Structure formats: C-alpha cells, structure tokens
Amino acid sequence: MFGCVRKGTSEGAGRDGQREQCVLLVEKTKKITDCLTANVQGSCAAYKGPLPLDQERALNRELGLHGAAVRKYRAFRACAGAVGDPGSGCSRARLQQRCPSPGLCLLCLIPDALLQRVAELEKVNAEFLRTKQQLEQEFNQKRAKFKELYLAKEEDLKRQNAVLQAAQDDLGQLRTQLMEAHAEMENIKAIATVSETTKQEAIDEVKRQWQEEVASLQAIMKETVRDYELQYHHRMEQERAQWSQYRENVEREIADLRRRLSEGQEEENLENEMKKAQEDAEKLRSVVMPMEKEIAALKEKLAEAEEKIKAASEVKELNHYLEAEKSCRTDLEMYVAVLNTQKSVLQEDAEKLRKELHEVCHLLEQERQQHNQLKHTWQKANDQFLESQRLLMRDMQRMEIVLTSEQLRQVEELKKKDQEEDDQQRLSKRKEEKQKDSDDETKASCSLAPEETLTQLSNEEVHVNSTHGSVHSLDADLLLSSGESFNKPDTDMFKDGLRRAQSTDSLGTSGSLQCKALGYNNKAKSAGNLDESDFGPLVGADSASENFDTASLGSLQMPSGFMLTKDQEKAIKAMTPEQEETASLLSSVTQGVESAYVSPSGYRLVSETEWNLLQKEVQNAGNKLGRRCDMCSNYEKQLQGIQIQEAETRDQVKKLQVMLRQANDQLEKTMKDKQELEDYMKQSAEDSSNQISLLMAKCQKSENFLSELQQAFLQAKRSVQEQMAVLTQSREQVSEELVRLQKDNESLQGKHSLHVSLQQAEDFILPEGAEELRELILKYREDIISVRTAADHLEEKLKAEILFLKEQIQAEQYLKENIEETLQLEIENCKEEIASISSLKAELERIKAEKEQLESSSQENLQQLESLQEAKNALEEQLKKETAAKANLEQLVFEEKNKAQRLQTELDVSEQVQRDFVKLSQTLQVQLERIRQADSLERIRAILNDTKLTDINQLPET
What we know:
The structure is a single chain. The chain contains 19 helices and four strands. It is mainly α and 958 residues long. Helix 8 (330-402) packs parallel to helix 18 (770-933). It has a domain at 2-128 and 761-798.
C-alpha cells in the first residue's frame, strides 16, 4: 500500500492526488494504529516525535517506505510532534503555523472534512478508551474477587491440609500402636517359646534324673541281689556241711542202733531215735525259718525296688504323655486305646483266674473224694492185712508143728544160700550203679564246664515213699531230679529252689537244694525227707554217699515195684537170740543125728516127697511174709499221686495268688495312670481356657483397633474426597473464568475489528491544512502511545495472571498427585492391616475350633474315665469275690492238709501195727520153737508163764 501511495505521488503532482495520498496515508496510519493496539508484542515504536536512526530504519522497512516517502513520513512525524494532539480543536491555520515544514508535511495539506473525521474518530477513540477503562475497572474488580476467592480457596486448602495432616498423624499413631501390638505379640511368642524350651529342659532334666535314679536303683538292686546270693550260697554251703555232718551222725547212730538192736535194746533205741529225730526236726526248723524270713525280706526289698522302678516308669510314661499331648492329640487317643486294651486284658485275666479257680475247686473236690475213698480203702486194707497176718500165723504154727530138726536145718541152709545169692546180686548192682554215677558225673562236668563261674541252685522235690521210705524209690527220684536239674535253666532252677524252699511247711514234703558247679565235684546230691511235723521221720537216702547196703534191699523188690522198709527187712531176716539158740540146738541135734540118729519124743519122720512139699510151702510162706499185698502197694501209689497232686494244686494256688497280686498291681497302676491323666487333662483344659481367653481379649483389642482404623480411614477418605470435590469445583470455576476472559478478550477484539470495519465503511475526510493533519497525526500518535502503553500493561497483567494460574494449576496438580499417592499408600497399608487382622481372625477361629475339639476330646476322655471307673469298681468287686474264693480255697486246702496229716498218722499207726504183728509172729515162732524143743511139761508151762504179756511193747526186740 505504501508502494501505491509512492506510485500515486510520482504520477500526479496535483492537489487531488495529494489528498488521495493523504487519505491513503491516514488509512494506513489507522491500520498501523489498529495493528499496534491489537498486537501484544508491538515491535514498532511510537509515531510522535523523531525516532532514532536504527528505529526509523526498522520502521521504514516494516512499513515499506523508500526515498521521498521516507522523507514525507519523517516530516509527518515531525509535524505531528510539533502540532500535538490533532483532536484538540486545532484549525488548518494553526497546523500550518505550528508545522516546521509546511511544504512537505501532509498534515498541513489535510482538508477540514478529514479533520472532522479525525475529530469524530477521536471521539470514538475516547469512548473506546472510556469503555476500555470501564472494562479494566471491571477486570480489576473481578481480579480482586478472583484473588479473594483464591485466598479463600488457599485457606480452605490449608485447613484441609491441616485436617489431612491430623488424620495422617492419627494414622501414624495407629500404625505405631499396631507395631507395638505386633511387637507385643512377638514378645508373647518369644516368651512362649522360651517357656516351652525351659519346660522341655526341665522335662529333660527330670528325665535325666529319673534315668540316673533308675540306674542307681538297678545297680543297688543288682548289688543287693548279688550280696544276698553270695550270703545264700554261703549259708547253703554251711547248711550242706551241717547236713553232711548230720548225715554222718545219723549213719553213726544207725550203726549204733544196729549194734544195740543186736543186743536186744530196740525199744530204747527207737525212743532215742525218735527224740533225736525230733531234735533234728527242730534244728531243721531253726535253720529253715530264718531262711524263710530272709527270703521274705528279700521279696519285700524286691517289691520295693519294683515299686520304685514302676514309679520311675510312670514318670517316664508321664513325660511321654506330655510330649505326645504337645505333639498331637492322636497319641492321647492311642493311650486311651491302650488303656482299653489293658482293661480288656485285665478282664480276660480275671476270667482266666475265675476259670482256674473253678478248676482248682473242682480238683480239690476230686481230691477230697479221693481222700475219702483212700481212707476207706486203707481201712479195708488194714483189716485184710490183719486177717492175712492171722492166717499166716496159723499156717506157720501148723508148719512148725510138722517140721523136724533135720528139716529145720535144711531150711537154714537154704536161707544161707539165698542170702549169698542176694549178696552177689547186691554187689553186682552196686558196681553198676557206681559205673552209672561216674558216667553221670562226667556228663555233668562236661555240660557245666563253661559255667564254672556261676553258682546255681536247684530245688527239686524228691517224693519219698510216704509209707515206708523205700531206698529204691529214693534212688529213682534222685536220678530223676538230678537229670532234670542239669537240663533246667539256671534261673528256673534258682527260682524253683526258692519256691520249694518257701513251700516246705505248707506242703508235706521238703525238697533238696542241689548245688551245681561250685568248685567242688559237680555231683548231684539230694536228701529226700519228709517234714517231721506232718508225717514223722522217715528214712532219707543219698544217691552218692550213702553207705548202707542197697543190694540186699534190691532183692526184696516185689513185682509191683514196692520196696520193704528197713524195719520190715530187719524184722523178717534178722536172727533173734532165740533163733540163734534154736540154730545152735539144731546144729547140736544134727551132729547127734550124724553120729547116731534118734528121733526125739514128740517128733515124727516124714518121707522125701513130703519134705520137698513142706520146703515149698515154707518158701511160699516166707515169700508171703516178706511180700506186701498188691492193694497196699496200689494204695500207697495212689497216696503218693494224691500228694503230688496236692503239691501241684498248692503251686497252682500260689501262682493264682501271684497272678491276682499282679492283677491288683496292674489295676492300681491303671487307676493311678487314670488319675494322673484326669489331673493332666484338667490342667491342660485350664491352660487352654486361659490361653483362649487371652487370645480372645487380644483379638477383641485387635478388632477394636481395626474398627478404629477403618473409621479413621473412612473419615480421612471422606475428607479427602470432599477436598478433591472442592478443588475440582474451584478448578472448574477458574477454567470457566478463564474461558469467560478469553471470550471477553475475543469479544473486545471483535468489537475493535467491528469499529475498524465501521470506520472503513464511513467516509474519512482528511483535514485540509497541514496543521490539522499534523494535529490529527499527533493525536493519533498519542492515542497509539496510550494504546501501546495500555496494551503493554494489559499484556504484562495477563502474562502475570496466566503464569499465576499456571502455577496454581501445577500446584493443585502436584498437591492432587501427592494426596493420591498418600491415599494409595494408606489404602495399601490398610489392606495389609486388614489382611493381618483377617489372619488373626482365622487364627482365632482355628483356636476356637481346637478348643471345641479339646472340649469334645475331654468329654470323651471323661466318659472313658467314667467307664474305667465302673470297670474298676467291677474289678474290685470281682477281686473281693476272688479273695473270698481264695480264702475258701485256702480253708479247703488247710482241711485237706489236715486230712492228709490224719491219713499219714493212720498210715503210721498201721505201719506200727504191722511191725507189732511181725514182732508178735516172730515171738510166737520163737515160743513155738522153744515149746517144740522143751523136754517136759514143766518147761512148757514155764515158757508159757514167761510169755504172759499185757502190752505189745513188752515184746523183745528181734
């Protein structure tokens, strides 16, 4: 456009052309002014006054002025600066007067219409400025309101920040409390672990002490047992020496008795023997009773040691129960099952004991019946024996009447031959027995060689012939006992010896304690005897060192296996003084007959056949005299069997007593375990209830703390949400205000463009004079400067506001992000706390379930304990019944023992009667022989007068 103006000025030099150029220049100036007003940055300087050279060049380059246009524009600026405000009512003359270069200045050439137009424009500009000022005032007011609103929002934010800070402080306190609670829980757990470890250490210490005590008790018990074994062995050695000495004394007494019997003093010797036997029995009792007392003391000590061991085992079982209760509840159920099994076992044992007691009662009843039968049979046997003795005496009297002196001599010769044969058989049997004994000794020494350091005792019953004490039965029992003693284990032998040593007084027989491998010759010795208090003294026999003649007795063995006693043998075979006299008479008679045989008066001769028949009858009569009947031997065997059965029954009764005692001990132990289990269950229930109450209290505290945390969290969340709502609302308001301001700015810019368009549409009349033009230009320049200043001020103000708003928005965004992060962290922490609290709830529920299970198990255990109590009561009642039955059985056994003693006494009486009958028969034989040899009736009367006896004891000993 400046190029067009420059072209117009160069083509026409007329006045109209200048006016057109001025109009164009004014329009250009208005555009420049509008541009300066609208442009915020404003790179050009003010138009009033001269410009510096660099600014002028920059402005010319910007406006596109060159050459004359530059000079004219420079003059215009100078004119505008000299005239001043063109709208101040100046005229053309005034413009021309004031213009420094009227020929060149365009203002001086502006027409009046243009000046009027400029004046109108100035008015419009003034109105625009007033409107602008009003807008600025309104903007300032709104800015103040916005500032107040901003300050209020800042205060609200500060207040909200304070509330949020308080909530954060509360949350921090709650966290610290939660940490303290966790620390307290950890401390409780540590205390629990420490208490558990200390408890385990205490249990281990108690266990170790118990083990040491058990070991010491075992060592003491072993030493005590060893000492008592040594003492017992020593006493046994002493007793064996005493018994050997006593045996030697008895042998000497037997030899003395034999010698005295040969002298006819049998009655006194028997009385002395009875006295000595009684003295020996008293000695035996004095030896046996202290041994029994010591055995009882040993048993008591063993029982005490067993009780201590049981107590220690109970402590061990209690430790095991504690560990099992800590590890798992199933062990308790297993223990209850074990108790049930023990209960069932005890019930089975009680049933077995009941059955055995019934069997024992049945056996005792059978024995009672057998005793009654045996009593009747013995009475019958005694009557039959007396009748047979009477018949034999009559036969002997008849035979003695028939026999002559020669026949008597032949009978004596036959007796001597038989005696020689018996001696030879006896010697051969003795040699065979010695050979067998030597073989047995070698076998025993070989079998006991690896056990030379041990001292073993065996006590075997040697069942003696209760009627006659035969040597054969003693030898047989001795061999059997020695054979069995070597085959038995050492411990069984020792126990059996103790048992039989205890039962010597209760039973009718006393066993012999056999010593094996004690550094002596390993020879089995036995001394079989009967208790003198019950059966009277019988003859004992030693299988190894007895010196009496067994071969002579072996010849008297009957087919039934029964052996004669010494008294019977002596009564039958020993020669009395009368027989010696008769033998001397017979020898004298035979000598006389050899020289010159004359038959004495009162005798007759018999033939050879009659003599042989008579010898056979005499031999049969002798055999009948020396032989017992089969019924007697059978009865004797039955009596021995009954005695054996009685001993076995007593052993069974003792075993049953031991089993009952063991059952009672087991029952007491079970009751003690049950009581301890009840105490432990009560203690564990109390401990568990205390722990559950503590955990419930802690859980309640945790729940309260969690509810408080949740309430604080919800309150903080609500306050933060409210703050966020307020902030979002304020942000929306600020954004709305900014949009409104932008709209106002745009509307203002639109109004300005509208005014520009209106001004362009109107006819602009340039002032005619240069002065007016100059004034107009100066006015425009001032307007442009003011607009520039206002625009700069507005620009700075808007920049400041924009920066403030940006910073405020950034601060709000940063604060919002911080609040979101804080809330997110708090939410995560609250989630973690909620998870921990949920785990605590689960733990509490688990503890409640365990408590319920423990209560149910305790109820079950209580029920089981009640059932055990009922079983205990039943067992106690059963035990009372068994004890009553036991007392009844003992009474029955005592009665049977008395019956056996009575039978034994009757048997002894019958034996004595037999001896008396033998003595009487021998005496009668002697008297018959004397009567037969008498020469006259006076001699016969004298013999008969001498034989008037009032008592059987008055008979002479044969």
